[in-house]
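Hey,
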Amino acid sequence: MRILIATDGSDFSKAAIEKCCQIIIKPEEAAIKIVSVYQVVVPLDIHAASIEYSQELEEATRRQAEEFVKEAAAAVRECSPNSNIEITTQVSVGAADQALIETAKEWNADLVVVGSHGRGFWGRILIGSVSDSLVHHAPCSVLVVRPPESGERVTA
């Protein structure tokens, strides 16, 4: 089974990783691709200082996304320490939903696992919902993992 896990480093993503570990029955037959997507920051001003600041901010955001996929890969390996589970990582730039849909298509994913951010009605109206877009447009099944109940600990 080819499972694509989306991560943004949040507790919601950690819950998705934990759920993914729980559903993998045969780790030796699973291939995991962990993806983090960041957006390019466009300068509001054309001054050199704004462009330089924007480039520094983009670089920092890219490095943060790289750290997210690294941590997620370590968490998946930790939940299957005795297996040779195939794990690859990818950092993409752009709109998260579109990048994840394209990656799922190109990689022939069987399942996309994503955390639910639970932004509620107004958050979805204002900034959209990655999980909603994936459910409606991904080329495969999508598992949207809700955050743990308060008091529960995410171990991934």
